[in-house]
């Protein structure tokens, strides 16, 4: 069930109403409790005073010892009860025999309410209890004769106490007025508060503000340009992922001075000058960038500035082109070409009536494809690298080459500083070079090994003719190639630059048996 979303004004009104209601109820409970206790104390003092007066009456003292004393004591007790307005007067002797009671049939019976014990031991006390007529406060006073030396009985004066319900009934008008005024004032205050809050929040609801902030943050973080914002003190207030990557700061930089994040002399002064600068070349963390500066103004007052920048090097642009969509399109093209060849083979076998051979071929192809896909998906956790290897495997089949993956291959989650695009560039170019080296060879095999341990190790070995000692030192030069083809001679140069940027090493082993490239990248 979808939960209803209330507006801020409604939430504040409901909260204020609930708070006022709870406050009034709590105050009412406390007041009623205090009134109840005060009334009990006042009633108890009144009952005690009347009980002492009755205990001093000589007619009561002298007739408690007589068997028919109730005939004289009952009228006296009833007369006093009616005159004082108490609810009942009970007089009983030391044997707990009642000599007076508001209910005539109780006279002569045993007083056994359970709380009269101390009064028979010459003690005065008050006892709240529930009697025959209801809850009451009772005062017990001993009756003594012979000038107070001998106790002959006890006077019990009971005055019924009002219940909580009766007190609330008596105060209901005052409670209703208090509750109504409290809710009215709270509602007016909440509406005024909500109006001011929404005015300060541009008439937006909190969830709308949260959504807007999340969207803006996501956009900033997703941009391909580095973005750094500062306030008038030169303190960083915003920096996105690309900005942290280019500046080489992996930690949380917000709140730090800009000079500690970007070590460019005079940058803060330039940004806070109020001038707009476009296409300004800077070197940040040994990277040539193209920067733009835009001052931030609120009501014509400069409150900060924003610096945007992006990597300008052509190497990075070419690397992105070579390792991005282009390589995957090539892999898909090879897979499609191989798939068409297999379909033609199956169609030919069926036309020749070799149904069983066609089925065997289908199962063989499916088993081979499933085996290589299962191996790569299990061993290579990075989707980009896994896709590249599958594409190169299909490309090798198309070229009638054999591409073998070492059974010990493994690639898991990579550290944040290892760029996957650079790994794809390195591995893709080394495999392409190995394929080209096998052109026209009888033994055409490429062995690939990728393993992530303390270091990331990439090994690509082919059974080609090897590399001449004359050109081996020129392999990584930009534009050097042994082929008379345009746009060649940059692959190994890009590989070398990518490995150096990852602080790795590359080694070559070559001979008549073939060539092996071994790359080690520290993790």
Architecture blueprint of SSEs:
Elements: H1 8-55, H2 58-63, H3 70-84, E1 88-93, E2 98-100, E3 125-131, E4 134-145, E5 150-160, H4 164-200, H5 206-222, E6 226-231, E7 236-239, H6 241-247, H7 258-261, H8 267-271, E8 277-284, E9 287-298, E10 301-311, H9 314-323, H10 325-351, H11 355-379, H12 383-398, E11 402-405, H13 420-437, E12 445-452, E13 455-462, H14 491-501, E14 505-511, E15 514-522
Parallel strand pairs: 11-12
Antiparallel strand pairs: 1-2, 1-5, 3-4, 4-5, 6-7, 6-10, 8-9, 9-10, 12-13, 13-15, 14-15
Helix pairs in contact: 1-4, 9-13, 10-11, 10-12, 11-12, 12-13, 13-14
Describe what this molecule looks like in 3D.
By secondary structure, this protein is an alpha+beta fold. The chain folds into 3 domains: 8-165, 2-Layer Sandwich (Beta-Lactamase), CATH 3.30.450; 226-312, Beta-Lactamase, CATH 3.30.450.20; 317-522, Heat Shock Protein 90 (2-Layer Sandwich). The protein is 47% helix and 22% strand. The protein has 14 helices and 15 strands. The strands form 3 sheets. Strands 2-1-5-4-3 form a 5-stranded antiparallel β-sheet. A 5-stranded antiparallel β-sheet has the order 7-6-10-9-8. It has a 5-stranded mixed β-sheet with strand order 11-12-13-15-14, covered by helices on one side. Helix 1 (8-55) packs antiparallel against helix 4 (164-200) and helix 9 (314-323) crosses helix 13 (420-437). It is elongated. The mean pLDDT is 79.
CATH architecture of the largest domain: 2-Layer Sandwich
Low-pLDDT runs of 5+ residues are: none
Output the number of helix runs: 14
Task: Please state the average pLDDT score.
Answer: 79
Q: Strand arrangement, largest sheet?
A: 2-1-5-4-3
Cα distance, first to last residue? 49 Å
